[in-house]
Specification:
12 helices; single chain; alpha/beta; seven-stranded parallel beta sheet; 12 strands; five-stranded mixed beta sheet
């Protein structure tokens, strides 16, 4: 059974994770043993538990003890569960808890790129997508629309940032993902070359003279295809585009030149999903 603790002191050390730690600090919270992330809402927390993530503590409204949060509490063992009314929780965290429950959890170990590519037919690569809302939305679309894995360059927002998890509706725990390379890109093999070695053709989503339409038959016939999306403001780097096998565009109407990267991802994933899955 969890250890229910009514909050009487906002400065209690056990609340530091929720009230006084930035996302960057959570990433390194228990170094060298690994970091922490915050999952929000009972549904998302359950998905994290289903994926094997280990809880540290919970922050919740009293109604969650016998409400939506009850299945979460039944699976978390004897961990601290800090309880307070919504207004006090908003004061503590600095934001409104829309579903009345947060859970601090140990960050899981990430698989290698090679592990994710081994049995995949369709993977997503994000290059320097910095907005956590976009990262969460793209991962949700990838999980829903037949992608097998997501790879991110180190310039991307972390999929385990609270907002990215929330926007993804917990699908960050349902589709495998990992980071490409190190914090020093000069030491890494360019990722299009790395994907080529793993047997993938690469498709850069970009507008340029050699772009083909997203409905090009050659794309649909590729057994192993990596769909590569770039940053919100600048798109993909010229070096990445030049290194890819295809440059792909989504046909537009009414003079619109592009879509938000999250919206474009959903269109691309649906159109380019592996042919075996085309029954849905």
């Amino acid at each position: 059974m969890p250890d229910i603790i009514s909050i009487t002191d906002l400065n209690a050390p056990g609340l530091d994770i929720y009230a006084r730690s930035t996302e960057a600090e959570l990433l390194h919270y228990f170094e060298p043993r690994g970091g922490v992330f915050i999952a929000e809402s009972p549904k998302v927390i359950l998905r994290a538990l289903d994926s094997g993530c280990r809880p540290i503590s919970i922050l919740a409204e009293p109604r969650q003890l016998d409400g939506e949060g009850r299945p979460v509490l039944s699976r978390c063992g004897k961990i601290p569960v800090y309880i307070a009314e919504p207004q006090l929780l908003s004061t503590l965290t600095g934001y409104h808890l829309t579903r009345g429950m947060l859970c601090a959890m140990h960050r899981p170990l990430l698989p290698s790129v090679e592990e994710l590519c081994a049995h995949a037919h369709r993977i997503v690569v994000l290059e320097n997508v910095m907005n956590p809302t976009n990262v969460g939305a793209i991962i949700r679309s990838a999980a829903a629309l037949g992608m097998d894995a997501v790879l991110l360059t180190c310039g991307c927002s972390d999929p385990l940032y609270r907002r990215a998890i929330r926007v993804s509706m917990g699908t960050v725990f349902q589709i495998p993902w990992t980071f490409l390379g190190t914090k020093d890109p000069s030491k890494d093999i360019p990722f299009p070359s790395r994907l080529c070695r793993a047997g993938f053709k690469t498709a850069a989503m970009a507008l340029c003279d050699r772009s083909v339409g997203i409905d090009d038959p050659a794309l649909l016939e590729e057994e192993k295809l990596a769909i590569i999306l770039g940053s919100e403001g600048y798109g993909l780097s010229e070096a990445t585009i030049a290194a890819c096998d295809y440059t792909v565009r989504i046909p537009m109407s009414h003079g619109v030149d592009s879509l938000n990267v999250a919206a474009a991802s959903a269109v691309a994933f649906w159109q380019l999903r592996w042919q075996v899955q085309r029954s849905f």
